[in-house]
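User: Batch of two.

Assistant: Item 1 of 2:
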Amino acid sequence: MAVQDFLIASLVLSCLAASSYGTSFSSLPATLIVSASTKQGQVLKAGEDKITVTWSLNTSLQNGTDSAYKTVKLKLCYAPVSQKDRGWRKTEDDLEKDKTCQHKIVAQPYSPSNNNFTWTVQKDVPTATYFVRAYVHNSADEEVAYGQTTDVHKTTNLFKIQAISGRHVSLDIASVCFSAFSIVSLFGFFYLEKRKSKSSQQN
């Protein structure tokens, strides 16, 4: 009886362990060919520049490979150089915990070919080095495959995005004008006070 209890407990723990770990990136096949309009080392400005992403199924694969494919989700992902010493961007094999690809570009129904999307870099994208990854999802919205614009080591075809600084020329001009007005007002105040003082002394 004790042996049976032990086996049941072991089985339950195994199931719990399996269920607590989501889809692993290492288990996904790289079945999509993905490319972007960016060039190695190119610097894009957030809120201004655009990226055109093209993707398709690798034609060398066996027929029926994509039978369960339903949706493709494109994401902007941090390159290793922009993950160093930044735990909030850390790569994890468990996709539920992975922080590599935090910026959604678009989600579209799956099609094996002739896919492209032009995306304007969003204003909230931080300064960093990036690549683009496409995740393929099944009808249960589970990741089943992927493709990316870089190699497996994430060292090629990387591009940079320069975030918005938050300062604008119009604001700078307004700031200068306000400062000048403040200085003039201060001198004017002292001048009037001095005249009042002299006037009271003469009286």
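Item 2 of 2:
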Amino acid sequence: MYLISNRNLCSKEKYIKTIVEAAKNNVEYLILREKDLEYSDLEKLYNKIVLSLKENNTDINVIVNSSVELYENYPVYGIHLPYNLFKDLLSKGYEFDRTKKIGLSLHSTSEVIELNKIIESKNINIDYITLSHIFETKCKERLKPRGVELLKNSRGLTDIKIVALGGILPQNVGEISGYCDDFAVMSTLFKSSDVKETIEDYNKNWNKL
């Protein structure tokens, strides 16, 4: 499971507590996605998260969203990029750190096909892609969900790890388990009154099929 951060969904205290609880309950990845923050504030937040995890004797793989500066300056697990930003960086000759992971946001099978060609021509390794949005979600209220079909169709086009994103709930996660490798959540954990129980509900339904 990937947890995507959004500090606007809850109090500062609950924000940190949710990340720590997720780590304690075997959520493997945190995508630190606070795009509105200036670098200095993002840096402070990252260090606060790392310190809180250490104080609670737990850990999670931190993937920074979009901030190349944080990616370069700290021992993060990897970077997650919008597809167009990734292509822009490549066009400028940016050299990615091969010791860190790369994840990308994709939204169509045509992008999956294009990415395959980029990987081959640039000899670059992409560790996972998120495909979204699968179900209806408040984050994309005016956009029609792309549905499970996007996962099904993409599954046959790539060997890259596919992470489903968008409206993934404990009650529908079983619908996607046969067509992706993992899934990402945000509001369901940051708004949960019992993070451990919510994670257990996800895992129970994910493992049904």
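The beta strands are 2-4, 29-32, 61-65, 78-82, 101-106, 128-131, 161-164, 182-185.
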